[in-house]
Specification:
With 338 residues, the chain is mostly helical. Helix content is 73%, strand content 2%. It has twelve helices and two strands, in the order αααααββααααααα. It has a two-stranded antiparallel ribbon with strand order 1-2. Helix 2 (37-64) packs across helix 7, helix 3 crosses helix 10 (268-283) and helix 10 runs parallel beside helix 12 (314-328).
Length: 338
């Protein structure tokens, strides 16, 4: 009797599963018949850039338990420092529009990547030692830390405007033809580089967090810092590693954002800050993998909205998604109850 009942339940589940799959296929076809597939694809590339910043932001919250509002301006600083290096280290070729292979930017940008990362990591760790760690040792609230990071964000933006001014800059570029795909999808060659690099970085971070000793120490510290400390884990070193990884992702994300939108503005990090937080909240605060999923959703939604709305409302769409998520599921898609 029990065996027959179990078989009946299995058949019922398979039937329900088939219905759900069928509905999903129908909805997907209906979606593609209304939405331009090119916008969806571009949204995925935009989401990949947002993911780099959101993952770093999520790691910082998971370890230090505060919202780092200056994270968007870290991305801006990385992009502008790349512009500085192209003019200083490669004066003859760095600022010329010579594309490397199929890309619009030249090979000097690849050579500048390591130096940009080193500078951003040094600034991030220096800020933690000089500012954030002092506040943590005084047991200030999360709100005070967040407001302090807001002050750091304003200071970084002011520094960028003092050095480079408020006008629009861009990396040296040489126009290249788009790749053509079925269903009238055109993809700039730079976007393929952006997507591939983002995937490699996410995979590298996953392997680091799951396979290395420091990655496991970071996960333990994120779960319970006091327990990790009494267990013999050097939590200060973990914090420095967290800042280093976060700054690395911010530096690369800022450069890719400048390449993606073909311009640099002092406020571009401030503009992307709400999508960063929206991705973190949507995926689940403190969950880097959730931040990745949330960023892709934010990127696609924001890009698809331009089919009906002015592109200037992209940030508003991200803010709306963040508000709806907080109302319906405050812990996010992958968030767990504490």
């Amino acid at each position: 009797m029990l065996k027959e009942k179990a078989q009946f339940l299995v058949r019922k589940w398979k039937a329900s599963y088939s219905v759900l799959v069928g509905l999903a296929i129908v909805l997907l076809l209906a979606f593609l018949s209304v939405i331009k597939l090119e916008l969806v694809v571009n949204g995925l590339f935009l989401g990949a850039i947002v993911a780099l910043g959101a993952i770093g932001l999520s790691l910082l919250y998971g370890i230090l338990n505060f919202a780092h509002i200056a994270h968007g301006d870290f991305m801006t600083l990385g992009a502008y420092f790349g512009l500085f290096l192209l003019g200083m280290l490669f004066p003859g070729i760095g600022l010329e529009g010579t594309g490397f292979g199929p890309f619009t930017f030249g090979y000097p940008l690849f050579l500048a990547f390591p130096l940009i990362i080193l500078v951003l990591v040094a600034i991030a760790i220096g800020l933690d030692i000089g500012v954030y760690r002092r506040l943590r040792h005084r047991n200030v609230s999360k709100a005070v830390l967040a407001m302090t990071s807001l002050g750091v964000a304003i200071a970084l933006r002011g520094l960028i405007q003092v050095i480079w001014g408020g006008e629009t800059w861009q990396y040296p570029r040489l126009s290249k033809p788009f790749y053509m795909f079925p269903m009238e999808v055109r993809i700039p060659p730079d976007n393929l580089f952006i997507g591939a690099l983002a995937i490699l970085l996410v995979l590298a971070l996953y392997l680091f967090l799951t396979r290395t000793r420091m990655g496991k120490a970071m996960r333990a510290t994120s779960d319970n810092m006091e327990l990790a400390r009494v267990s013999g884990i050097n939590t200060e070193r973990v914090i420095w590693w967290t800042w280093a990884i976060s700054a690395t992702l911010a530096a690369i994300g800022g450069i890719l954002l400048a390449v993606f939108q073909a311009q640099l503005l002092p406020i571009m990090g401030w503009r992307i800050l709400i999508p960063l937080f929206a991705a973190v909240i949507l995926g689940g605060i403190g969950n880097p993998y959730g931040a990745l999923v949330g960023a892709l959703i934010i990127g696609v939604t924001a890009e698809v909205s331009t089919q009906w709305l002015n592109p200037g409302y992209k940030t508003a769409i991200a803010f709306l998604i963040m508000i709806v998520t907080l109302l319906l599921r405050p812990r996010g898609i992958f968030g767990v109850r504490e």
